[in-house]
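Q: What does the assembly look like in three dimensions?
Context provided by user:
Components: two
Sequences:
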Amino acid sequence: MVSSMDRRSFLKLGVASSAALTGISLTATMTGCSDSTPLDGDWKVLRPSDRRFLAAVAPVMLKGALPTDANVQSQVVNTMLVQMDRTVFGLGPYNQKQLIDLFNLLNFSVSRGLTTGVWSAWENASEADIEHFLTKWRDSSIGLFNLAYNGLNRLMCAAWFGQPDSWQTVGYPGPPFADILITK
Amino acid sequence: MASQVPDIFRERAAAEQWRMVDCATLNAPQTVEADVIIVGTGAGGGVTAEVLSQAGLKVVMIEEGNLHTSSDFKMDELDSYGKLYQEGAGRATKDGAVNIFQGRTVGGTTAINWTSSFRTPSQTLNVWGNDFAVKGFSPEEMAPYFERMEQRLNIEKWAMAPNANNDTLKRGCEQLGWSWAVIPRNVAGCWNLGYCGMGCPTNAKQSMLVTTVPEALKNGAQLYYRCSAQQVNFDAHKATSITCQALGVDGKTPTGVLLEFKAPHIVLSGGAINTPGLLLRSNAADPHGRIGKRTMIHPVNGSMAQFSDKIDPFYGAPQSIYSDHFQWVESQDMGFKLEVPPMQPVMGSQILGFHGLDLIDTMKQLPNLQGTIALMRDGFHEESQGGSVELDHEGKPVLDYPITEYLWKGLRKAHHVMAEIQFAAGAKKVFPIHHDGDYYTNLEDCKKAIDALDMKEHRARVMTAHLMGGCAMGEDETQSVVNSQGRFHQADNLYVIDGSVFPTSIGANPQLSIYGMALKQASQLVATIKGQPVTAA
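A: Here is the predicted structure of the complete assembly.
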């Protein structure tokens, strides 16, 4: 249920900043700044840089929802990363490419700084900086940023609220008659 | 441990030795011949397969999705959305502004829909006859087909009490003096669980997965699944075969094995978006440029309300009450149907568009939240011409659906109406789902805020679960793709029997419209193949 990024391509919208973004993203790709590291282990789609971005942003996107204990939260985020990888793979090749384009934009320092206001690497960004980025993209008058926010928001909501660990907080008792209806 | 409900599909498959091929297991190319090839196993393909196989024809069903049956259905959102929906439930319109929920599994969308079963409204059928040159679809002519499908699929008004989510819609309408009614559902022995959208774990939902597809298999039909139709091959005025790609165990990636399906008659039942996509990919003749045009989606917006009493919107038959009070209005405004959505945590959280504390503060209230949705009746007005299916650079279909000012106006009106209903039913606060919306504690403030909403893509939350049109039927070849019997204007033996033939949207959840139309078209096709006169339904 993650929104596909703009299918015409995330980078081709006719908004004022898109020309600049396109140039930046091409630069990011051509200079090898985007992460082309082969996937390791069981990861289907998400590259190490994508996972660093998602791991940094998820606790802010889901602030107040995730466990506060640092170790527990870190485990939860790791579980979410596995789920997000599965979800993004399931979206099919076209949607995957849109998301990867977005991650490239977010992982190249210049485009990240210009579009999100976060100038440090994601893993060093403060909570306030990330919160500012999310709100900026959500409230932007540029549809492109709203769209990207919606995609990240849905991806992370699914990865957390789909997990039984989240259900107690939201008062959801889980599926009924699980003992007799669910094949384990 | 296994579910204690028998998996009737698997049990019958073994006992009756059904002929099914999981194309992921194939190592070599295949050529398959039959009397009729049917692409798709949803509402259109399922009914067509049953009718043709009962007539003694050798039928082959092709399904792009995997085979999932009741013991696979775990009432788990992540699992189901990933496995049973088109593009992992991430399908969207071309600009990403409208999320599309469409099934991709044996049984198609009927395996994951919410069971609402309405006959095509008479108003809609009359428009088809009067404005779109469709023959044989008057309310009187269609009634026997709907009646037979209602019997076949046990369609009856929901007899149990509505869940609180639905009851709120009813109470709000009653307070305001607006009309409402009970929704007919295609269920038998329903447990009232609320997980229809994740695949029915008790086989109560009378989807194609447990009704027509099994009947066809019992009659000797074959089913090829994880089999993706790539191209219809044409020779002059005939379709000669369909070329398919086998998909691997991930259900997505082609293995490289190709299958060729040949038959004197070919039926396309892939549904809106996919059927016009297949025809476009096949370079099918299209002298008037009609393939993929006028695709309708019943655009949906929603309103969230918080109540003091428990709603538990995740439990109970998802849809049992509707209101058509604003559906067939005299004014030129776009009509809409009012219903409610089930809200398990993923669905509930994803429609909000909040993050951080705004998100969790709302989600903590989930048991007290009520959702109302409005389904816009698109395609009935000159400023509502629907969208167009195109192919992306990989040849996959994508729907370009522009939201017109007329439609935005209808969506805004629906926000007003939904808020009125929710406050009338006793809501403590109401949130019109939109990036610029907030919770409002009284109707006056809420209506002011709704009037101020910036109605535009990516800020307004719009979605669809009803895909219709794109291969419109009719007798005027310049306006349509198939004739009133579903036969492709440009080939004598190629038929389209699915929701893509509708010239407008339906103005109601479309499954029974597809069933009734498919029963009529498939019965006609049997008569055509056998050279017999058609008998009435």
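Follow-up: The helical segments of chain A are 18-30, 48-61, 70-90, 93-107, 109-116, 127-139, 143-161, 178-181.
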